[in-house]
C-alpha cells in the first residue's frame, strides 16, 4: 500500500485529478475523538500503509497540533511524519493533493515527507479580498488600510511564495496601489500550472477573467471554500486562489532531480536539508574548536 497522507480536515482533500491518486486519511480532531481513539486511528493507518505523512498547517488549533504530537510520542514510532506548512488553506489543500499523487510513485516514505518543503516553493497562493483592515498574514501598508474602508474596494493579495498586495483599479477608493490606472498583478509562476479557486462572500470574476489569463494557467477549477479560509484571510469577503503543478510526471521529475541523502539520525531517505520524519538537519552540528570547554551534555534529540 502507498504511504498514507493524512490531514486534519476534509476541506484539505481536493478531488483526485485521476483515478490513480488515492484519497487522504482525515484524522478526527480532539473534540470528536479521545486520545485512545486517536491512537487507534493512527495505529490502523500504520498497519495498513506502513508509514503516515500528516500535513500540519500552522493555523490549526493548538489542541489539534498537541494531539498529533502526543500520539506520535506515545506510539514511539519513527514511521509518523508531521509536516508543517505556512500555506493558506487552499494552497495547503493543493500541497496535500500533490503528496497524494506522489504517494503512488516509487519514492520512499522519507522522500515523500521531505518533498513537501520542495513542492511548497512552487505553489502560488493568494486571494481577492474585499478588505485588508484586519489582515496580518501579509504586510499591509497604511494607505492600503485606509483604502480598505472605501466601499467596493478590492485587493489582490499573494501570500506565497512572496507577499504581494495591490488595490485593484476601478474598485472603491481611487486608483491602483502604485498610483496608475492599472494594477500590477501579483507575479505569477513561470512554469505550467492549473489554477484552483474558491468563492467566499465576494461576487467577482476577477480570478477567472483577469488573473488566470495573466498567469497563463493551463486549466481552472472551482472548489468549495475551506472553512478556515475566512479566518486565515481575516475576512469572509474573498475569493481564494492557488496555482500549482498538476501533472504527476512533472512532479515526479522535480522530486527525482534532487539529490537524495540518508538521515543521520533515523536513517530515512530525504531530499533537502531536513528529514521529514524526525526533523533532524542533514548536516551534523559543527565540531567544537580545539581547546574549547565541552561536557557530555544531553544526548541530541530529534525535534517533534
Which features would summarize this protein structure in a list?
four-stranded parallel sheet; 12 strands; six-stranded mixed sheet; globular; 8 helices; 304 residues; alpha/beta
Question: Can you walk through the features of this model?
Answer:
The structure is a single chain. The chain is α/β, with parallel strands linked by helices. The protein is 28% helix and 18% strand. It has 8 helices and 12 strands. It has a 6-stranded mixed β-sheet, sandwiched between helices. Strand 3 (52-57), helix 2 (62-75) and strand 4 form a beta-alpha-beta unit. Helix 1 crosses helix 2 and helix 3 packs antiparallel against helix 4. The longest helix is centred in the first third of the chain and has 15 residues, at 35-49. The chain starts with a strand and ends in a 34-residue tail after the last strand. The relative contact order is 0.15.
Topology (SSEs and partners):
Elements: E1 4-7, E2 25-26, H1 35-49, E3 52-57, H2 62-75, E4 80-85, H3 89-102, H4 109-120, E5 124-129, H5 142-147, E6 155-160, E7 164-167, E8 194-199, H6 206-215, E9 220-222, H7 229-233, E10 238-244, H8 248-256, E11 261-262, E12 269-270
Parallel strand pairs: 1-2, 1-3, 3-4, 8-9
Antiparallel strand pairs: 5-6, 5-10, 6-7, 8-10, 11-12
Helix pairs in contact: 1-2, 3-4
Amino acid at each position: 500500500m502507498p504511504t498514507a497522507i493524512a490531514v486534519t480536515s476534509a476541506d484539505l482533500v481536493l478531488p483526485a485529478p485521476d483515478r490513480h491518486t488515492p484519497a487522504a486519511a482525515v484524522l478526527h480532531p480532539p473534540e470528536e475523538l479521545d486520545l485512545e481513539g486517536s491512537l487507534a486511528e493512527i495505529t490502523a493507518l500504520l498497519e495498513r500503509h506502513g508509514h503516515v505523512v500528516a500535513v500540519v498547517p500552522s493555523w490549526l488549533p493548538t489542541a489539534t497540533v498537541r494531539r498529533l504530537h502526543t500520539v506520535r510520542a506515545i506510539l514511539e514510532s519513527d514511521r509518523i511524519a508531521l509536516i508543517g506548512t505556512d500555506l493558506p488553506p487552499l494552497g495547503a489543500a493543493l500541497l496535500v493533493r500533490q503528496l497524494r499523487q506522489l504517494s503512488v510513485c516509487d519514492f520512499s516514505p522519507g522522500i515523500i515527507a521531505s518533498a513537501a518543503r520542495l513542492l511548497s516553493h512552487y505553489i502560488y497562493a493568494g486571494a481577492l479580498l474585499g478588505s485588508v483592515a484586519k489582515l496580518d498574514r501579509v504586510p499591509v501598508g497604511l494607505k492600503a488600510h485606509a483604502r480598505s474602508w472605501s466601499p467596493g474596494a478590492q485587493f489582490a493579495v499573494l501570500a506565497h511564495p512572496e507577499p504581494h498586495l495591490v488595490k485593484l483599479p476601478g474598485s472603491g477608493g481611487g486608483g491602483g496601489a502604485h498610483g496608475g490606472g492599472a494594477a500590477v498583478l501579483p507575479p505569477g509562476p513561470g512554469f505550467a500550472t492549473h489554477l484552483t479557486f474558491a468563492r467566499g462572500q465576494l461576487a467577482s470574476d476577477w480570478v477567472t477573467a483577469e488573473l488566470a489569463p495573466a498567469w497563463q494557467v493551463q486549466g481552472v477549477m472551482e472548489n468549495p471554500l475551506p472553512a478556515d479560509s475566512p479566518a486565515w484571510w481575516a475576512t469572509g469577503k474573498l475569493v481564494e486562489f492557488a496555482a500549482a503543478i498538476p501533472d504527476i510526471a512533472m512532479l515526479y521529475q522535480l522530486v527525482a532531480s534532487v539529490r537524495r541523502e540518508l538521515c543521520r539520525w533515523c536513517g530515512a531517505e530525504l531530499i533537502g536539508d531536513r528529514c521529514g520524519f524526525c526533523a533532524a538537519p542533514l548536516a551534523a552540528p559543527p565540531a567544537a574548536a580545539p581547546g574549547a570547554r565541552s561536557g557530555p551534555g544531553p544526548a541530541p534529540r530529534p525535534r517533534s
